[in-house]
TrEMBL record:
Transmembrane segments: none annotated. It comes from the Bacteria. The lineage of its organism: Bacteria, Bacillati, Bacillota, Bacilli, Bacillales. This is Transposase. One of its GO terms (biological process) is DNA transposition. PANTHER family: INSERTION ELEMENT IS150 PROTEIN INSJ. One of its GO terms (molecular function) is transposase activity. InterPro entries: Homeodomain-like_sf (IPR009057), IS150/IS1296_orfA-like (IPR052057), Transposase_8 (IPR002514), Trp_repressor/repl_initiator (IPR010921), WH-like_DNA-bd_sf (IPR036388). It holds the Pfam family HTH_Tnp_1.
Length: 134
């Protein structure tokens, strides 16, 4: 009986409908925090003005990619960092979000914790990429 050929990472992405950067991010979170790293939060994160400015500075230094900065500072996504960069480059004031204030997220796919675990386990069992450690 012939041996089953392992799925490529792109086949796993198509199988589950997950973008490649999302899948790699999830794999890094499992590598760093175990399956607990795949748990979503029940509320939107808040960030201080100082933390935003440090993250912006890290990215502008050229030493870090957007993905590196969000992982280093625990930022929820690259789109959050890009928004801060847009404000910074537009010479708008960078503000910290007051406690209790949050914005509703209206788009984006919600993936359960169990489904994320399943996807990452499949990817880890089948992928051929190496997750870089910093």
């Amino acid at each position: 009986m012939p041996m089953k050929i392992r799925d490529s990472l792109s086949e796993i992405q198509r199988k589950y409908g997950v973008h490649n950067t999302t899948l790699v991010h999830w794999m890094k979170m499992v590598d760093k925090y175990g399956v607990e790293g795949l748990k979503g939060t029940s509320h939107n994160k808040t960030y201080t003005k100082e933390m935003k400015l440090v993250a912006i500075s890290d990215y502008l230094s050229g030493n870090y990619s957007q993905r590196d900065v969000i992982e280093k500072h625990g930022i929820s996504s690259t789109s959050v960092l890009r928004k801060w960069m847009k404000d910074y480059n537009g010479h708008r004031e960078i503000k910290g979000q007051p406690e209790g204030m949050s914005r509703s997220m209206t788009k984006g796919r919600k993936t359960t914790w169990q489904k994320r675990i399943e996807i990452v386990q499949d990817a880890l069992a089948n992928h051929r990429i190496i997750i870089k450690r910093r």
